[in-house]
Amino acid sequence: MEKDRYQNGLDKLMEYTLTDNKDISTHLKISDDLQDIAPDVGKYIIEFAYGEIYSRAGLTNKQRALVTISSLVTQGTEPQLELHINTGLTAGLTKEEVVESITHLIPYTGFPRVLNALSIAKKVFSMRDEEVSELKAH
Amino acid sequence: MEKDRYQNGLDKLMEYTLTDNKDISTHLKISDDLQDIAPDVGKYIIEFAYGEIYSRAGLTNKQRALVTISSLVTQGTEPQLELHINTGLTAGLTKEEVVESITHLIPYTGFPRVLNALSIAKKVFSMRDEEVSELKAH
Amino acid sequence: MEKDRYQNGLDKLMEYTLTDNKDISTHLKISDDLQDIAPDVGKYIIEFAYGEIYSRAGLTNKQRALVTISSLVTQGTEPQLELHINTGLTAGLTKEEVVESITHLIPYTGFPRVLNALSIAKKVFSMRDEEVSELKAH
Amino acid sequence: MEKDRYQNGLDKLMEYTLTDNKDISTHLKISDDLQDIAPDVGKYIIEFAYGEIYSRAGLTNKQRALVTISSLVTQGTEPQLELHINTGLTAGLTKEEVVESITHLIPYTGFPRVLNALSIAKKVFSMRDEEVSELKAH
Amino acid sequence: MEKDRYQNGLDKLMEYTLTDNKDISTHLKISDDLQDIAPDVGKYIIEFAYGEIYSRAGLTNKQRALVTISSLVTQGTEPQLELHINTGLTAGLTKEEVVESITHLIPYTGFPRVLNALSIAKKVFSMRDEEVSELKAH
Amino acid sequence: MEKDRYQNGLDKLMEYTLTDNKDISTHLKISDDLQDIAPDVGKYIIEFAYGEIYSRAGLTNKQRALVTISSLVTQGTEPQLELHINTGLTAGLTKEEVVESITHLIPYTGFPRVLNALSIAKKVFSMRDEEVSELKAH
Predict the structure, then answer these.
(1) Fewer C-beta within 10 Å: chain C N or C terminus?
(2) pLDDT tens, residue by residue, A102-134
(3) Which of B104, B106, B116 to mutate to test the interface with D (most CBs of D within 10 A)?
């Protein structure tokens, strides 16, 4: 039933997020922002991308995050790269694995894409560190 | 010393190849083909790509193969994709992991790149099966 | 129910095909070719691409064909461009509209992508003319 | 005569603009901004892109706008996408057709390009609504 | 007058061709092949690309060939790359400059595009050598 | 020895910079910014890109700058384009040659990439003029 695919996708998306950081709200914020002009696109992300593709067997969440990040570095689609470095870390990738994956792409995409991706990774790392500091301060 | 970087790269490249299939000869064939017009490019592949980048710590050979394949699917550079699906399998990826990684890219690259990549994967799988059959027949 | 999405997609795909040409079999042939290594990808094309996206209101089939062709010319993914020029003609685009759309892209993609796309269009037109001739000869 | 091609292009460009919004000035602003370093580029846009390509028969202005937008979403060239969503609306596309065209590209470009394009569409829609409100307020 | 732009473009195109090789006929063959379905595209190549852009002052023919080849290597549009390596050699680039320009792109595009481009360069060099041999044999 | 490759790259990089402008510091700033998360990437830029590729014979520094700029315009990687227009000017390209090279790409990449690149060129020219003014004022 359709509802199950949506719920399925939402559950899967939750695995890539932490209750104590802003990933899930960022993902849902994208849907919210488009709610007025393109409400179905957010639904397709949950139902198709997370409910069908991410819910498949055969790769770990960490492997799916590696594949996603590698494609986004290659495309140079930066807002999505920021989001998926974040969800990748939540899915269990270490910062070192993220940096190594991007660095590994130098022979395949050249330096420009890699440098832009590393700047985004640095920004994501620093934002997550701040969140952790804030949480600890409470 | 320069010689060490080259030897280092060659050793690393060997990890991605089997003595009983044609990977290593394909890689070296690329260098051979370009030997007359661009001899240094084969050298850079060995020294820089394999001797420096692939020789870094922080990712397993399987993870490096996943990252490489994901980038090549996204770029649509098909001769290299064929080569790297082959080396990925040699590095330890299962056929299922190769197919899953390509399938996972549907939401990020769309269907056309994915379909073209799956056709190449199918071709590589079938060539490797034939080689195994031939070996067994001997 | 899941079955309905699949049937829905198949019905929509049929609108883009003629019983007397090879479009539908080409689309299904893609699924068939991948049946052994990636059976779900053919299912996603029917269920998601045709059953959800193509089944949306808001654009005519001809408009959807124009949008698809324009994206494929821009990407340079040629096997898919051949298929979608074919389905576009079946959906009601005239040959002139196909050629004009490709020509219109000169200022946006430059000449190389446009020239490659026109070569494919020429090939598709000539294959369809032959099919019509064969049908008339019977 | 050369002057006619320029005038022809300017007339065609006017069809894609309204006297009561900022499209025409945006187009001309691009030429103005480049007037000092590359004066001929603005001339080529008017003479070649509008005077020759857009002035061809065979597609309606709305169809040309659809083709243009589809290519720019696929390329991810965002400043131009903003401009051409604007001119597309002026040429007669509805907001729904713009959103549907972008949404239709999910299976061909993946979600990242589509999400970035929808954000731009949302921004353009809201800017045009404000202009209309301002006009009504007078 | 329009005729002058066309003649101007044809004259410029001639500078990139030799009477004793097949460049000019290849360029004109493209136009001939598209004569039936898109006759104006060949005209735009002559009038706009050669008659206006290539006819500008400020760069030598060799520099224009370098810029063109670098863009085509980056795009991976291979049929055009073959043509423009040919015209680049006719315009005065040496084989070494062609190979060096492609090799120089490794840090900017990665190895895959560079390797595919070098294969094409090798093919073009060998075809031109054969033509020279044939001419000498007469 | 490794140290020599690094020194070699640094010397070559110096040729593309002036003591009285900010190029060298921009290049080194990139390495500095990534020092904490990816220290080796800056090293690869110096050792491999400048120490090996840029240090090759066969092209002048001006030609290498032309090739680099043409690739970056085609890719649309804007932060790097800004940097390399700057180093290209230092390497001896005139502003006119930079503008002409970008303009020459209209038939190969279309107008969008060219317009975005010209905006960046304009910004770089104006920043360099200001630096010269500031220097003269002292």
Answers:
(1) C
(2) 999 999 999 999 999 999 999 999 999 887 777
(3) B106
